[in-house]
Amino acid sequence: MPRLLITLAVVLATFGLAVSASAQTAAPERPNILMIMTDDQTVESMRAMPEVQRLIAARGTTFDNSFVNFSLCCPSRATAFTGQYSHNTHVQGLAPPLGGYPLLNTTNYLPLWLQQAGYRTMHLGKFLNGYGSQNPDPHEVPAGWDVWQASIDPSTYDFTRFTLNENGTLVDYGGSKNPGMYQTDFYTQRARQLIDRYAGSARPFFFSLAYLAPHHGTPLEIDDPPGLKTPALPGRHENAFVNELLPQPPSFNEFDVSDKPSYIRRRALLTPDKVANVQEEYQQRLESLLAVDEGIRRVVAELEEVGELQNTLIIFTSDNGFLHGEHRISAGKVVAYEPSIRVPLIMAGPGVPAGQHRKQLAVNADLSPTILDAAGGFAGLPQDGRSLFPLLRDRGLRWGRDVLIEGRSTGLSFNALRTPRFKYVKYRTGTTELYDLSRDPDELQNLARVKRYRPLRMEMYKRLNRLKRCRGAACYAAPKLSMRLKPARGCVPGALRVRMTGPATKYLSKVAFYAGGRRVGLVRPVGTARLSRPVQRVVPTRHVRAGRRFKLRAKATFDDGRLMTLDRTRRSCAARAADRS
Ligand SMILES: [Ca+2]
Ligand SMILES: [Ca+2]
Ligand SMILES: [Ca+2]
């Protein structure tokens, strides 16, 4: 059997399908993996979750710049379970023909790959939209799940009365049979039971725990605002944030929308009444997260009680962000603006440094390769994202990739590129948007018609055209940049001449050099001039002890804000030729 697996791995690698080479971590055994996904949760709302901060973020690493490829429940979950952007999953909506559960290819996706890697796979809660309603038989259980307890649509969206498909059996919860039941609390209790039951087994588990909050759902409540949908709350948390003011960043109810696409320009300013309603909606969404936060405390406590906490990789994230009045959108997602595409992403457990942050861009297509990396498994499909573990091990590492954002809904269709600094959006109508997020984080000044950004726009347009049809490694292709060292081989006598080469040098705006962890050189433009060519530098390496191997790293910054590191390992000469001269 192991030989068969090795053969399979070799075959997959040969065809470029393998994503995970590592698996050889320091951990004595392979970790359990718990992926907690909330629904429609913004990064801003994380302040309502002190337990997640204490038990996951403080023990782990927070990705400060985490995005979803397609900011909508169903496409986003399809990406999480396949490692593919939505143009490859073909799940680009909530219902056929654009999307919905029936469009997910359940014959080749993450849970199956994890089973092949020896994992017990479990899912509890919301799955892809339309599960139980769009498939002809609600008893259907998708392949790949050992323990399957998914909510049946539309009962998914009732916080007090819902039906789970429990490995093929439909079981009703709440309602008149069990008044007072609250879905979030039920999921927490059920999650603890599952952990208790399968802890300590020789088979590690992958547990997908999908809370509905802070997404809207029934029943209606007395203070629900007219015209806006809100979650339902347990009595103990009603009005917990009643005094919380709606955040009003500069993009809130954006006054001048003359630079915006027509679907924004058409929107009227929000009236004070409407703003009050949005505030109530905002408060209820925050309030609904309190039970999730409590739930996560109890789930983590359960892992600790059964002795599995140290050996469980916990991933906390959301399927998409949400707008609360930014750019005049009173409630919504799908769009390319920051509050819509940004999601919380926090990891803790084996191989994850404690109490750290990462600035590098992450995208939900990274979830599958990251999980497979931890599990020592292999993807059966080209992965459009990458394992985040290299970024966890090396905070200075930069890949230089663009993140692809996609969106389709009634009357709206776009693709976008997100770099660490810029966002370029191209609508099917031909309209474009360009934002310099380092100067304009609230996306108030569309630069698409500003002349001096034309070269950047053309370049991003070309890259977007490539990325919008990308598959696998092409989706995270780095800029074509390399470095030439002199001496090219042999030991380094005390200094190295480094020259940046490759077509991407023409977009370089700055390069910093590090040897053995110390910054030893910087090439940057003087004044407003462009970087002089060729981009090269003699960097001293005398601080590296004689005869030692050291890492030379070049950290390149491009005009569009992309960052890329290039590494080379060299050895300093035992005899210090340079010192003697
Ligand atoms: Ca969602
Ligand atoms: Ca409500
Ligand atoms: Ca209220």
Explain what this protein looks like in three dimensions:
It is built from 13 helices and 21 strands. Helix 2 (50-57) crosses helix 8. The chain is α+β, with helices and mostly antiparallel strands and 581 residues long. The longest helix has 34 residues, at 272-305. It has 3 domains: 2-218 and 230-403, Alkaline Phosphatase, subunit A (3-Layer(aba) Sandwich), CATH 3.40.720.10; 404-476, Arylsulfatase, C-terminal domain; 482-580, Immunoglobulin-like. It is globular and about 80 Å long. Residues 1-27 have low confidence and may be disordered. Helix content is 22%, strand content 24%. The chain has a 10-stranded mixed beta sheet, with helices on both faces. The structure holds calcium ion (3 copies). One calcium ion (CA) binds next to helix 8.
Radius of gyration: 25 Å
CATH-assigned fold name of the largest domain: Alkaline Phosphatase, subunit A
The CATH architecture assignment of the largest domain turns out to be 3-Layer(aba) Sandwich
Stretches where pLDDT falls below 50 for ≥5 residues?
1-27
The helix/strand class is: alpha+beta
Number of strands: 21
- Taking the alpha carbons of the first and last residues, their distance comes to 61 Å
CATH class of the largest domain: Alpha Beta
Write down the overall mean pLDDT: 93
Kindly report the spatial arrangement of strands forming the biggest sheet.
6-5-4-3-7-1-8-9-2-10
Present as ligands are: calcium ion
Q: Biggest sheet, open or closed, and with what strands and sense?
A: 10 strands, mixed
Oligomeric state, counting identical vs distinct chains: single chain
Q: How much β-strand is present in the residues?
A: 15-25%
Number of domains: 3
- Counting DSSP H or I runs of 4 or more residues, the number of helices is 13
Per CATH, the superfamily of the largest domain is Alkaline Phosphatase, subunit A
Helix content: 10-25%
Q: In one word, what is the shape? A: globular
